[in-house]
UniProtKB/TrEMBL annotation:
Keyword 4Fe-4S among record annotations: no
InterPro entries per the UniProt record, alphabetical: Mito/Outer_Membr_Metalloprot, Peptidase_M48
Alphabetical UniProt keywords: Hydrolase, Metal-binding, Metalloprotease, Protease, Zinc
Organism: Novosphingobium hassiacum
Domain Peptidase M48: 18-202
Full protein name: Peptidase M48 domain-containing protein
GO process annotations (BP): proteolysis involved in protein catabolic process
UniProt cofactor(s): Zn(2+)
UniProt key word Hydrolase: yes
Domain of life: Bacteria
Molecular function in Gene Ontology: metal ion binding; metalloendopeptidase activity
Length: 343
């Protein structure tokens, strides 16, 4: 009932990205992955959130974060994610986890009460119960990974899950390097981990992919076209977040995999301009100019270039911003930019 109520609130929430062509594309990939009969109970909502996550609830509601869509490169990779989440749904993992957690909490309460009455320390026993719950969740994740591989192999898509987990590892490396931390490689989960490690998942899927063979469709162009429609929204939270290295890695990996079109170059310009150092502003200028040189350049490239030029003390920025206002006179910040040019 609570989940149904949450879904009703989502239907009118500003957090949900509403784009009919993207919704149709996601439904098609889901149905192609799990079969048209089984996908009928699934309702997909794209949520504006920078994290790489998706989740499926016991009532058939599925949430897909914009941060996940920004990081994937093909329909085949999306199929692996959808297969994993659908496996959780079909195996009723969410409900089973809830029941297991409730049982553990009930036992912990009784053990604590009995221990208090008998003046016995029960902390170790309660801790073991909690660890058992974590292990239960980890087993569910492993089962969902196994089932996801089978779903993708049974579809027309190529199994490409290891590529996703490799980029997760590389993204974490980029973040740790930015923060001056060493890289971490873990093949064995820590006691408190409720998921297999990223390295475990990469190696498992790489092995399965080698056994299955290199057949099936990637759907790279279809994925690029479907996500390009909402590209600025997919990257907005990442660009405005606090992890520059993560955002730059995600943008670069998409550019290298799907091509450096003008909107993506403009978004990389936005990232560097907002980062703000003189060196970053110079890089931002270059990205914007590369975008403007392409026929599909978005008007935002002129806006970003003008602002970067002004921050660097280049008076040409005024002309660039004036050009932007001619191209997009109804821009949300048009009045603010006009005031800037009048001063």
């Amino acid at each position: 009932m609570e989940i149904d109520e949450y879904e009703r609130s989502l239907q009118h929430s500003a957090r949900v990205l509403r784009e009919a062509s993207l919704d149709a594309f996601l439904r098609k990939v889901m149905c192609d992955t799990v079969g048209s009969e089984r996908c009928g109970s699934v309702r997909i909502y794209v949520v504006k959130d920078s994290s790489m996550n998706a989740g499926m609830f016991p009532n058939g509601m599925m949430l897909v974060n914009t941060g996940l869509l920004a990081r994937l490169h093909s329909e085949a990779e999306l199929a692996a994610i959808f297969g994993h989440e659908f496996a959780h749904f079909e195996k009723r993992h969410s409900l089973n986890k809830f029941l297991e957690r409730r049982r553990s909490n009930d036992w912990a309460s009784w053990i604590a009460l009995a221990g208090a009455a008998a003046a016995v320390n029960t902390n170790d026993t309660i801790r073991d119960l909690r660890i058992g719950l974590i292990a239960f969740t980890r087993l569910q994740e492993t089962e969902a990974d196994i089932l996801a591989g089978g779903l993708v192999v049974g579809s027309h898509y190529r199994l490409r899950a290891s590529y996703v987990w490799l980029r997760v590892i590389e993204e974490e490396d980029a973040l740790r390097a930015e923060r001056g931390l060493r890289k971490i490689r873990r093949l064995v989960p820590a006691l408190s981990d409720d998921h297999p490690t990223n390295e475990q998942r990469f190696l498992y899927f790489a092995k399965q992919e080698s056994e299955v063979g290199d057949w099936g469709e990637d759907g790279t162009e279809g994925y690029r076209a479907a996500t390009s429609v909402v590209l600025p929204i997919l990257f907005d939270a990442l660009i405005k977040g606090n992890d520059f290295a993560v955002a730059d890695y995600v943008i670069r990996s998409r550019g290298e995999a799907l091509g450096w079109d003008a909107p993506l170059l403009a978004l990389r310009g936005d990232l560097y301009r907002l980062h703000g150092s003189p060196r970053d502003l110079a890089s931002a200028q270059d990205f914007y100019q590369q975008a403007i040189a392409k026929p599909e350049a978005p008007s935002s490239a002129w806006r970003g270039l003008g602002l970067a030029q002004l921050k660097l003390g280049n008076p040409a920025g005024r002309d660039t911003l004036a050009d932007f206002l001619k191209r997009d006179p109804a821009a949300p910040d048009a009045n603010m930019l006009k005031m800037l040019l009048e001063n």
